[in-house]
């Protein structure tokens, strides 16, 4: 028998109230066994069969014909278990039989008993009004079909419970006996309304779509209405033993959760038991957890009449849902009905509860929308608002992790969308999903199932995507290039671990492998370039080497430097530097301290790099020599392998070798600046480099790994080196090629009698020495006359005009004290030459000096900045220095015959005492 036939049989056979009469014995359900079987067994089975091939999902089907006596309106309901299992609450599909008019209604309906419960809580709208408002709200989320009417049903009024069924109807299809002969239409209607039922629930359940991040959602049960009023009044929540034994007892696990787990920002649902639906008293957010709440202080504030007996409080903001609360139907894998004083819930149930509460309160208020109520909730509770994006919209989410030169994307678990064309990660706060930090042009390394398979370039900004389950994602489109041969992770694992940054939380290669729970990782530049170079193989190595075989010709322009060179010194230096570099020589800049040697060395390298455009130069390294240097610092040596559990040693290339090969093995030509070169013991630190500087090759007493058989070599290569040899060197990471394009640039001060090493002639002949001196300050040393034109900003160009720029304070000091500073410079230079940088330091010291007079500022500057340069003078030299400061001098005026005395405002006595103490002078002996 078909579904339509069984429905028609029930409708035609079911007695009306008048036919049953008032005799309870005549109305007993036991008198109608055939109807019982049709309603409870035959029709549910037919419905199950009809839906099996048409609708996904599982449903519960229950027929009702009354208990004891026959019901006026028999019904057969279809429940989505996640929504309800009874017609008392929630939303359901139900066949309603009207025996008076011989009409059958297939309805999408709602539980009226729950609405009666709401009215019992003291809310103003009548039960039928509540049903009508909810029905209208639900209709806004329904698809449409011409067979169904989106209005209240019209069951005969003489039928008991017809009114709540009619007002609870969201939509219906109506059949008379003749309509129930069309079996196909009956099944089609049933399939449509069940699908519409699922669509409605899906839309209701997925609103609002909040971003709760890591917030916990916790259900707390106030033991009484008075306790809830206390929570709301004082902005607190407590953990109290339940009044009802069916809710169990207070456990240590619940106490631990309340005191240790619940923290600021977590969401609280204050729920009391109720039938048929639990009563949601309020929704809250924790402002201060138990550990931060002063328990005794709260206890003193809480009114005793609320019956809060436990001294266990947290502070909260509460959004109230009426005085005693409102019944809410929210079910699923977990129920909102309290079964314990405290229960942790899923974020999904928490969001579903917020949505249900917003809809219910909108219905009860009557003049607002659920969106209005939700916005009020979120503002009160300081919760994030739902997503504002549609699929495809460009996102403006903030990045939650630092950017990087390169990125690693683990596409092992991604099949859809194509991981080589679109990156996709959940729209959450996890740094491993942070696609927002990607910019157009960024490079990504693609990893899949144990191998690095290729790389891609970001082609646009991150945009919004939402899947069929309403899960939110970020997407980024890329242009992908596969490696001809994927790189097995095992091949380069040790290298990748060796290069792991110190802050490695976002680094993909951990000691135990690649994590399986991440997606996007950061790669430092050296790792990214290593992988790319490895993937592209060594095909470019020979070309890189050939580009570096010629001696470069470089033009030096010192005008761009923040340095001043008096008397044509600038042109002389430019010619000397250019000639030395073009003839294949290395450089050493010599001169007094403060003459700009280090700055000039950097400028030479930067000029070379700019003109090289990476064709033959790969930047430069700046370092300062020390007396402790050995070949371990300059060449390298054995160190424990950080990736080996044994005590295996591996070779660690250092300063010089790093100039010729990058850490990933890529050939390079990186110039080297060694500041204060003669502080190192040259033979001890540079011995093996002598041969290379003399254009010879040298074999080092090291191996990359002690288990290999090949010694490391520093190879001199030039245009005479055969191409086959160049190819062999290019692909062999044990060979470090030095080319004619490489330069070593050193600096050294021209004096240091106590701590510096002498440079051997063997070392010096490999360099061109360029001296950077200081100008003559005295124009008449015997008369102690200075010119005043080197430091006076008004007489530029000179040192002062180069230094000051926009620095008004320095300009003022030089304008007022240029003559004194110039005389001090001249007096110091009689004993020990110093460069203009030290004079600039003195001027800046005076400009920054606070308190005291001009004498205090200049005296302080001399002690701090000049005295360290005077170490090692003889006693007569110190005495002469003192006498010169005391005597003062003159500055030449515009007329050659006129001059003006300079009274040095320094405390000479203090300076002498300081010198005696600092330099251990013995003036009385």
Automatic annotation (TrEMBL):
Q: Which UniProt keywords apply?
A: Plasmid
Q: Looking at the record, which segments are called Disordered?
A: 385-405
| Domain annotation AAA+ ATPase: ranges | 583-778
A GO molecular function for this record? ATP binding
Record keywords: Oxidoreductase included?
Answer: no
Keyword GTP-binding in annotation: no
The molecule here is called: ATPase
């Amino acid at each position: 028998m078909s579904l339509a036939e069984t429905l028609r049989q029930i409708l035609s056979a079911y007695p009306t109230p008048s036919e049953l009469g008032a005799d309870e014995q005549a109305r007993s359900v036991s008198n109608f066994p055939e109807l019982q079987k049709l309603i409870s067994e035959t029709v549910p089975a037919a419905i199950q069969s009809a839906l099996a091939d048409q609708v996904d999902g599982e449903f519960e089907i229950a027929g009702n014909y009354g208990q004891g006596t026959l019901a006026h309106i028999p019904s057969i309901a279809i429940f989505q278990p996640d929504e309800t299992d009874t017609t008392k609450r929630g939303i359901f599909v139900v066949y309603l039989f009207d025996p008076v008019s011989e009409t059958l209604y297939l309805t999408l309906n709602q539980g009226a008993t729950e609405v009666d419960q709401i009215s019992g809580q003291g809310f103003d709208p009548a039960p039928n009004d509540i049903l009508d408002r909810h029905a209208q709200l639900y209709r806004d989320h329904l698809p449409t079909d011409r067979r169904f009417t989106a209005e209240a049903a019209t069951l005969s009024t003489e039928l008991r419970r017809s009114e709540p069924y009619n007002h609870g109807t969201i939509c219906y299809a109506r059949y008379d006996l003749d309509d129930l002969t069309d079996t196909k239409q009956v099944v089609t209607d049933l399939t449509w309304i069940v699908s519409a039922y699922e669509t409605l629930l899906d839309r209701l359940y997925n609103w609002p779509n909040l971003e709760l991040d890591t917030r916990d959602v916790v259900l707390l049960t106030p033991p009484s209405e008075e306790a809830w009023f206390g929570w709301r009044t004082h902005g607190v929540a407590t953990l109290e033993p339940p009044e009802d034994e069916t809710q169990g007892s207070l456990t240590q696990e619940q106490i631990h959760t309340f005191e240790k787990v619940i923290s600021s920002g977590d969401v609280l649902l204050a729920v009391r038991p109720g039938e048929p639906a639990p009563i949601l008293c309020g929704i809250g957010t924790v402002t201060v957890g138990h550990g931060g709440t002063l328990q005794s202080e709260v206890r003193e504030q809480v009114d005793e009449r609320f019956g809060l007996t436990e001294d266990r409080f947290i502070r909260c903001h509460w959004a109230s849902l009426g005085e005693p609360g409102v019944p809410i139907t929210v079910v699923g894998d977990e129920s909102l009905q309290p079964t314990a004083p405290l229960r942790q819930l899923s974020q999904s149930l928490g969001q579903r509860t917020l949505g249900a509460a917003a809809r219910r309160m909108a219905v009860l208020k009557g003049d607002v929308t659920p969106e209005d109520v939700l916005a009020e909730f979120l503002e009160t509770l300081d919760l994030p608002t739902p997503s504002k994006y549609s699929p495809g919209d460009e996102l403006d989410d903030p990045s939650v992790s630092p950017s990087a030169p390169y990125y690693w994307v683990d596409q092992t678990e991604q099949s859809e969308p194509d991981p080589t064309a679109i990156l996709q990660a959940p729209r959450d706060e996890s740094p491993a999903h942070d696609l927002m930090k990607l910019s157009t042009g960024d490079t990504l390394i693609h990893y899949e199932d144990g191998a690095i398979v290729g790389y891609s370039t970001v082609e646009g900004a991150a945009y919004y995507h939402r899947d069929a389950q309403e899960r939110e994602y970020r997407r980024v489109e890329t242009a992908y290039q596969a490696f001809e041969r994927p790189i097995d992770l095992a091949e380069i694992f040790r290298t990748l671990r060796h290069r792991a940054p110190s802050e490695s939380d976002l680094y993909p290669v951990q000691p135990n492998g690649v994590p399986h729970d991440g997606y996007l990782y950061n790669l430092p530049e050296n790792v990214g370039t290593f992988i790319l170079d490895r993937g592209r193989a060594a095909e470019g190595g020979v070309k890189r080497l050939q580009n570096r075989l010629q001696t470069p010709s470089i033009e030096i322009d010192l005008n761009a430097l923040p340095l001043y060179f008096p008397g044509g010194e600038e042109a002389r230096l430019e010619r000397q530097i250019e000639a030395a570099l073009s003839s294949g020589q290395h450089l050493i800049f010599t001169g007094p301290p403060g003459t700009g040697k280090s700055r000039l060395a950097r400028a030479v390298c930067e000029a070379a790099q700019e003109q090289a455009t990476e064709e033959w130069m790969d930047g430069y390294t700046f370092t300062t020599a020390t007396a402790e240097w050995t070949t371990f610092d300059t060449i390298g040596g054995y160190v424990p392998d950080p990736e080996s559990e044994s005590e295996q040693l591996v070779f660690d290339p250092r300063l010089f070798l790093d100039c010729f090969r990058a850490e990933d093995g890529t050939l390079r030509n990186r110039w080297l600046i060694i500041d204060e070169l003669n502080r190192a013991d040259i033979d001890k630190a540079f011995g093996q480099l002598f041969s290379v500087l003399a254009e010879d090759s040298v074999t080092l007493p090291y191996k990359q790994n002690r288990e290999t058989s090949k010694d490391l070599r520093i190879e001199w290569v030039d245009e005479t080196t055969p191409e086959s040899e160049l190819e062999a060197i290019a692909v062999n990471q044990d060979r470090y090629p030095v080319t004619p394009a490489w330069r070593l640039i050193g600096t050294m001060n021209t004096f240091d009698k106590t701590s510096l090493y002498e440079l051997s002639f063997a070392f010096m002949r490999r360099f061109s020495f360029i001296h950077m001196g200081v100008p003559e300050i005295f124009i008449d040393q015997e008369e102690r006359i200075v010119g005043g034109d080197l430091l006076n900003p008004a007489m530029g160009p000179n040192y002062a005009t180069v230094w000051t720029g926009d620095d008004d304070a320095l300009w003022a000091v030089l304008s007022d004290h240029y003559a004194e500073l110039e005389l001090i410079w001249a007096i110091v230079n009689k004993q020990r030459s110093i460069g203009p940088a030290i004079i600039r330091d003195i001027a800046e010291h005076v400009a920054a000096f606070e308190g005291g007079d001009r004498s205090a500022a200049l005296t302080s500057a001399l002690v701090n900045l000049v005295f360290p340069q005077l170490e090692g003078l003889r006693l007569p030299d110190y005495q002469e220095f003192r006498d010169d400061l005391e005597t003062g001098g003159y500055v030449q005026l515009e007329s050659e015959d006129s001059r003006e005395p300079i009274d040095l405002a320094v405390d000479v006595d203090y300076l002498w005492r300081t010198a005696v103490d600092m330099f251990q002078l013995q003036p009385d002996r």
